[in-house]
Amino acid sequence: MRDAEHRAGDGEFVHVPQGETASRIGYDGDGDDSCAHAAEATAGILRKEAVLPLSAASARCEGCSRTEKDADRADEEFVSMSHEKVSVVGLGQMGAALAGAFLAAGHPTTVWNRTPGKADALVERGAVRAGSVTEAVAASEVVVVCVLDHAAAHELLDPVTAELAGRTLVNLTSGSPEQARESAAWGDRNGFAYLDGGIMSTPPGVGNPASMILYSGSPDAFAAHRETLRALGDPIDLGADAGLASLYDTGLLGLMWSVFGGWLQATALVGADGVPAAAFTPLAVRWLTAVSGFMDTYAAQIDAGHYPGDDATIDVQLAAVEHLLEASRDRGVDVRLPELHRELMAKASAAGYGTDSYARLIEAFRKA
User: Fold this and answer.
1) 3-class secondary-structure state, position 131
2) CA angle 221, 144, 101 (to 5 degrees)
């Protein structure tokens, strides 16, 4: 790379400092004489620093005989330097969303699916259809697999273990922490880097920067490919233990289902008196924001193993859950979920912990 005041040779890039003008930059086919290519390449973008390919202003320049084909080749080289190649194996709803997000971010993307027709829409958008898993793996340094389960992933990838050597495998297939750790060990034995991932989104949310994608495994691989993975959502690094992404994923899904269950029970309760779900839910969402503050407080208590009931004791909340049970029964609403909460609180109170905070109930889950 050269500064703008130096001549650029054929196929080179020039550095355009902020505030410079195109008139200072010369380019030609042999590096000797100036022509309009640099001006064309920098037009409209001189307000910020950039590293730019020099493209042709016309089909052929009389000054340097550089053709549009030359310019296209330089532009393709620039794209390949800026956007890492990625292969996606598995094109179910989630796999197709992953491949689509890579394409939208400008990454050259190779795709493979057992049923070839599932790649058609992606190929129309610019993806390359691989004829085999081997071809898909060979096409890119980063190979992303998203299939039904770990058994299906190994069925596809075990036969191409040798081709994976020197590459990074990003496994976004749902599985257990133990399966992820076994896969990481498989990668270590066979010379490829392994990242396990948890997609905290449904397919329509893939590619949204607000969507969390959890990763654990090779720190070097994550650091090298973080920006590529950013095309899928916010990449969260959970560290070198390959099992942690799966562990967090399952824990967070459990939290989601608990929240959904509580919301549905509460919505049924107020709905029995004619309150529409759409009217109740904004207040439920606002209340969850306050609840998240309680969780921050309780997390410190759990880590310390000390549960002071400074805000609300178990005994106070036990009395409140009785009101919920009574109101639910009176309206014919299912009470199994609040009964579970009542049972846990009653046991803790009977054991002498009634003046502790709700966080004390972590011990009941640990001993279940």
Assistant:
1) coil
2) 105
Compute how many other C-beta atoms are within 10 angstroms of the C-beta atom of residue 130.
22
What's the CA gap between 136 and 160, in Å, rounded? 10
Burial of 112 (0-12, 13-18, 19+ CB in 10 A): buried
Neighbouring C-beta atoms of residue 315, cutoff 10 Å: 16
Q: Would the pLDDT of 47 be above 60? A: no
The answer to whether 196 touches 243, Cβ cutoff 8 Å, is: yes
Query: Taking Cα atoms as reference points, which of 191, 244, 193, 258 lies closest to residue 222?
Result: 193
User: Could you read off the pLDDT of 133-165 as tens digits, one per residue?
Assistant: 999 999 999 999 999 999 999 999 999 999 999
How far apart CA 348 and CA 325 sit, in angstroms, is: 19
Rounded Cα gap, residues 302 and 366, in angstroms: 12
Instruction: Compute the distance between CA of residue 244 and CA of residue 154 in angstroms, rounded to an integer.
Output: 20
Integer Cα distance of 329 and 327 in angstroms: 6
Residue 290: pLDDT band with limits 50, 70, 90: very high
Record the pTM: 0.77
Taking the CA of residue 300 as centre, how many other CA atoms within 13 Å lie in the half-sphere pointing to its CB? Answer: 5
* 8 Å CB contact between 165 and 192: yes
Q: What is the DSSP string of 21-70?
A: -GGG--B-SSSSS--THHHHHHTT-TTS-EEEE---SSSB-TTT--BHHH
Crossing angle of helices 244-271 and 177-190, rounded to 10°: 160
Note whether 137 and 167 are within 8 A (CB): yes
Mean pLDDT over residues 273-290, rounded?
97
Distance of alpha carbon 200 from alpha carbon 86, whole angstroms: 21
Quick one: pLDDT at residue 82? 64
Q: With 0-12 CB in 10 A as exposed, 13-18 as middle and 19+ as buried, what is 265?
A: middle
Count of all residues that appear for the chain in the document:
368
